[in-house]
Amino acid sequence: MPSDPTGTTDAPLTTSTGRRIRTEEMVLNMGPQHPSTHGVLRLELVVDGEIVVDVIPHIGYLHRCFEKHSEAMTNYQQVIPYCDRLDYLASMNMDWAYALAGEKLLGIEVPERVEYIRVIMAELQRIASHLLALGTYGLDVGAFTPFLFMFRDREKILDLFEMTCGARLLYNYIWIGGLSHDLPPDFIPKAKAFCKYFRPNIKEFNDLLTFNEIFIKRTANVGILPADVAVSYACSGPMLRGSGVKFDLRKDEPYGIYDKFAWEVPVGTGEVGTVGDCWDRYMVRVREMEQSLNIIEQALDRIPEGDVKSAVPRRIRPPAGDVYVRSESPRGEIGFYLVSDGTGSPYRLKARSPAFVNLSVCPEICRGYMIADIVAIVGSVDIVLGEVDR
Amino acid sequence: MTFDEITKKLRDAFGDAVIEAQSEGVPEAFLKVAPAKIHEIAALLHDDPDLRFDYLMCLSGVDNGKETLGVVYHLYSMVHRHRLALKTDLPAADPKLATVSDLWPTANWHEREAWDMFGIVFENHPDLRRILLPEDYPGHPLRKDFKVPGFYNGMKVPY
């Protein structure tokens, strides 16, 4: 029998005959090709047996020189397809964030119809992104079936996008000053039908996964992120709200026309565990889908007629200056720091991506848990390596 | 607090270290400060109960041309709900700046990125390594005078 099976004291381990056992920490690489790291993330785990002592994330495997490329573009609109590829699961939100930065530099007001369509697209995208996040999170902790249910519904949203702009993932739809196309004629009835169809399914997901005993055991009280740590690491999105901080840019710094809709900001409450655990972050996403549905339904009812291209500038040459514009993507605060020198291409464009910042808090919340919990924690952060590495 | 009140408070505390306060004729108001004082100024912005900038939204490196590099801090206060853009300029030949990662831990990765892309050295940073590019990458590619090497470890890289 080892003298100290729990490892709670610093006394050296010995065998039954009194011989000392040599112990040391081991370094274990998780990734870059590991299914639960959601892409090409490498986590260097320092482990003591099954307990994780430290985590060192290594990123950059998917670096595609976004910032360097956008400086080389010959005009501002050409950057938008690259923004699509930053967070390829929430391209609409990325395009919108970049368009907001460009519009602020130019001082453009967009028509009201454009604002409504942008809100509808961004919220549909949020639901699609959360469905993928929740489904794959189920996969991470060993539940396969919910993933299929959620992908089935995500497909229906992608069908709506395909109908609108021809692409299912990378849309190039939201432009500086407007949109690339108007909505097709039967979009509004189809989107309304989707909302009606989708709302009861959230309850089904809850029955399948959210309140599943095993799922709760895997996620409650795991990876607890206290609110003050979340703020000091500038976490945002469900990561911040899961820790009980009621902060959503759509509510607290409203852009577009978000102040015209009635909806709530869900936060983590520690319902089944501690505030700020993995289950809270998961549950914030589930509740956000309901709120997104509320917003979409109101927007679909009130959408005005108009021309979606009337404010799209022919030539974009903003005056010299710089802006930092942020908005709420499904993963949190996506900010673009855009510097213009008065020519036709961006002088400097920095993307402050939410997953990059949210991932940087990982070492803090992973220490002391088992290796299997690391999978649950990294999954609950909901990273997309496309925007972490840019 | 408004931008003018914040400027006044910093001018009272640091005098000439606040080089420029620009709020008119620019898309977004900003303060420019001396790089030598950056840590003290950041500490005041972070700790003062009236300012309480507890949320560092973004930290960006910029190549200004004209032989200078810039670092831009975008700060926000969750308590007071105000924001500030803080800029500082460094000589491109010897860009050194105190880290603020002890005040805002989120600056750790942003500063590593600025080192990676612009070669800005953040003094007293706990772990200043490249973050996005490989460790053996030559040069700092977002500098305007960077020449694309064409070869990486003997492999031809077309651009």
What do these coordinates show?
The complex is a heterodimer of chains A (390) and B (159). Chain A has 390 residues and is α+β, with helices and mostly antiparallel strands. Chain A has a single domain (67-353), classed as Orthogonal Bundle (Cytochrome-c3 Hydrogenase, chain B), CATH 1.10.645.10. Chain A contains 15 helices and 8 strands. Chain A has helices at 66-72, 80-84, 91-106, 112-140, 145-165, 187-210, 213-219, 227-232, 238-242, 249-252, 278-302, 354-359, 362-366, 371-381, 385-389; strands at residues 26-30, 42-48, 51-58, 174-175, 178-179, 321-329, 332-340, 348-352. Chain A has a 3-stranded antiparallel sheet. In chain A, α4 packs antiparallel against α5 and α5 packs antiparallel against α6. The radius of gyration of chain A is 23 Å and the shape is globular. Chain B has a single domain (3-156), classed as Beta Polymerase, domain 2 (2-Layer Sandwich), CATH 3.30.460.80. Chain B is 21% helix and 30% strand. Chain B is built from 3 helices and 9 strands; from the N terminus they run αββαββββαβββ. Chain B has helices spanning 3-14, 38-47, 107-118; strands spanning 18-22, 30-33, 55-65, 68-76, 83-91, 96-98, 121-123, 151-152, 155-156. Chain B has a 5-stranded mixed sheet. In chain B, strands 6-7 form a two-stranded parallel ribbon. In chain B, strands 8-9 form a two-stranded antiparallel sheet. The N and C termini of chain B lie far apart (48 Å). Chains A and B meet through α1, β6, β7 and β8 of A and β3 and α3 of B.
